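Input C-alpha cells:
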C-alpha cells in the first residue's frame, strides 16, 4: 500500500471515529434524556429501548446487522469495513455515554444541541466513507431503482418512526424529533454536503473501457465516454458519470485499481434534468455510451 493511500485510510478512520463519538454523545446526552428520537435504525432502537429497558447500544448494532450484510454485497468491501467499524464504535460509545450525567433535561436545548452534534457526527462519518444507520444503505439501493432520492426515502421512513413516537410518548415528542431531524440534516449538509446530493465525476484515463465497465458492475452507473487529447500526454479517454456522495470512495477505489495515472475531478450538481440510469439490470452486458 502506497504512502498516500495509507494517509487516506488513516484520515478516513479518524473522521469516522470522531463522527461516531460525536453522534453517540448527542444521542445519549441530549436526545435520549428528553425522549427525542433520531431517525432510522437509531430511532427504532430508542423506542424499543424505552419500552423494554434493553441497552440502546446493543439494539442499534443488532438491528443494523442485516443492513451491513446488504452493504457488503452491494456497496463493496471498503464501504463495509468503514460502516461496520462506525456502527460498532457507535454502539459501544452509546453504552459508555449512557453512564454519564445528562447534559440537559430541557427539550429545546436537547433539540438544538443534540441536532447540531448529531448532524456534525453523521457528516464526519459520511466524509470518511462510513455509515451509522442501515436505512441509508437501503435508501441508496432503492433510489437506484426508483425515481425517489435517498433523502426522500429516508424522510418517509422517519415520518413513520416519528408517528409511532407520537402515539407512544406524546405528539410533542414527535414534533421535537422532527425538528431535530431538520437541524441535523442541515448540519450534515454543511459538514458533508448532503447524503443524496448528486456529484459529477470526470475521469481522464488511458483505460476508459475497463473503468466504465467496473463502475457499471460495482455501482450500476453508466458512463459517457469521449475522446480527448492532452497537450503533452497525447490521446486520452474521458469518462463522465453522475453518482451520490456515498459512492465517492468506491469510485476512487475503482479508478486507483484500474489506472494509477488517471486524473479525476468530482463536482457538485445542483439539478438533473432528463432520464438518469440508476441501476444496472441483472445479467446484462455493460452499457458504455460513446460520444463522437
Amino acid at each position: 500500500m502506497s504512502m498516500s493511500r495509507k494517509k487516506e485510510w488513516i484520515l478516513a478512520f479518524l473522521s469516522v471515529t470522531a463522527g461516531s463519538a460525536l453522534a453517540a454523545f448527542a444521542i445519549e446526552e441530549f436526545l435520549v434524556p428528553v425522549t427525542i428520537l433520531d431517525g432510522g435504525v437509531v430511532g427504532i432502537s430508542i423506542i424499543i429501548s424505552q419500552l423494554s429497558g434493553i441497552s440502546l447500544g446493543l439494539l442499534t448494532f443488532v438491528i443494523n446487522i442485516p443492513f451491513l450484510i446488504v452493504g457488503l454485497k452491494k456497496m463493496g468491501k471498503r464501504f463495509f469495513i468503514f460502516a461496520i467499524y462506525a456502527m460498532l464504535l457507535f454502539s459501544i460509545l452509546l453504552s459508555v455515554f449512557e453512564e454519564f450525567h445528562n447534559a440537559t433535561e430541557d427539550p429545546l436545548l436537547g433539540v438544538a444541541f443534540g441536532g447540531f452534534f448529531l448532524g456534525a457526527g453523521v457528516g464526519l462519518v459520511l466524509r470518511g466513507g462510513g455509515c451509522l444507520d442501515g436505512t441509508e444503505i437501503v435508501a441508496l439501493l432503492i433510489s437506484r431503482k426508483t425515481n425517489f432520492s435517498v433523502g426522500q426515502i429516508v424522510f418517509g421512513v422517519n415520518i413513520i418512526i416519528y408517528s409511532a413516537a407520537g402515539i407512544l410518548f406524546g405528539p410533542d415528542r414527535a414534533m421535537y424529533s422532527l425538528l431535530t431531524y431538520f437541524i441535523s440534516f442541515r448540519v450534515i449538509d454543511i459538514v458533508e454536503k448532503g447524503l443524496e446530493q448528486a456529484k459529477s465525476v470526470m475521469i481522464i484515463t488511458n483505460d476508459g473501457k475497463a473503468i466504465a465497465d467496473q463502475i457499471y458492475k460495482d455501482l450500476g452507473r453508466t458512463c459517457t465516454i469521449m475522446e480527448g487529447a492532452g497537450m503533452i500526454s497525447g490521446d486520452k479517454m474521458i469518462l463522465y458519470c453522475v453518482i451520490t456522495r456515498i459512492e465517492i470512495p468506491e469510485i476512487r477505489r475503482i479508478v486507483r485499481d484500474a489506472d494509477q495515472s488517471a486524473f479525476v475531478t468530482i463536482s457538485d450538481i445542483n439539478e438533473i434534468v432528463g432520464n438518469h440510469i440508476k441501476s444496472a439490470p441483472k445479467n446484462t452486458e455493460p452499457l458504455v455510451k460513446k460520444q463522437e
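The first helix runs from residue 3 to 31. The CA atoms of residues 256 and 274 lie 30 Å apart.
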